[in-house]
Amino acid sequence: MGTEDEDGFSEDREGPVREVCVDAFAIDAHAVTNARFAEFVDATGYRTEAEKFGWTYVFARFVPGELRKTSPRPQQTPWWCGVSGAYWRAPEGPGSSVEQRWDHPAVHVSWHDAVAYCRWAGRRLPTEVEWEYAARGGLDQARYPWGDELIPGGEHRCNIWQGKFPVRNTEEDGYAGTAPVDAFEPNGFGLYNVSGNVWEWCADWFDPARSGRSMRGGSYLCHDSYCNRYRVAARTANTPDSSSGNLGFRTAADVSPR
Ligand SMILES: [Ca+2]
Ligand SMILES: [Ca+2]
């Protein structure tokens, strides 16, 4: 796992390339959908952290005009709006819904929310080692789940950003926001959208000295000019109570070795 690719971020400790042993495990073919997350919420009455805090981060271009003007934006990343009343079932704030997006990944889910879902489902979050092993789909040191070329033969293989980030998205891959969890071809192990679509929480701390949990795979907002972390070796982190419109998860489980 890992990479020493010049496109990588050494400060993220993507490298060195190293051999890691991993026990047998199962992992979802795709991210947890809105439909499945709704089953969890309906069964348990669970309230996500975005609901408890009263807001979450939505990509500014998706926020309706008036709300966009009044929603605070972080100085360093002004393409995000902190939108009051946004949560997984109203991903762009009051009035929005997932009615047309039941098969899209559940978003605005914090690490704590994801762990609560896993507990209900009898699953757990994958470790980073498991995630990367699965994401590679059997390829050795390839940059993406399908190989080294981002758009092989002109065919888009994942949902990221085309155009000029963050002002113009040409949507050449077919999606401005989330795509259905099983859009695009799966990798060699049958996993969909490990690269792009939504970031995925992992079980690990990003760095033992800091308080972030690891996220892998990049999202529909990733563009080479800003963040090429849709590579399989790439990693980033967020605090475990954070949520946003491009962050979801898939689950894993132990299996007994044969
Ligand atoms: Ca896209
Ligand atoms: Ca992903």
UniProtKB/TrEMBL annotation:
Residues 1-252 form the Sulfatase-modifying factor enzyme-like domain. Gene3D superfamilies: paralog of FGE (formylglycine-generating enzyme). Residues 237-258 are annotated as: Disordered. It comes from the Bacteria. PANTHER family: FORMYLGLYCINE-GENERATING ENZYME, SULFATASE MODIFYING FACTOR 1, 2. InterPro entries: CTDL_fold, Sulfatase_Mod_Factor_Kinase, SUMF_dom, SUMF_sf. Residues 237-246 have a biased composition (Polar residues). This is Formylglycine-generating enzyme family protein. The lineage of its organism: Bacteria, Bacillati, Actinomycetota, Actinomycetes, Pseudonocardiales. GO terms for molecular function: formylglycine-generating oxidase activity. Pfam families: FGE-sulfatase.
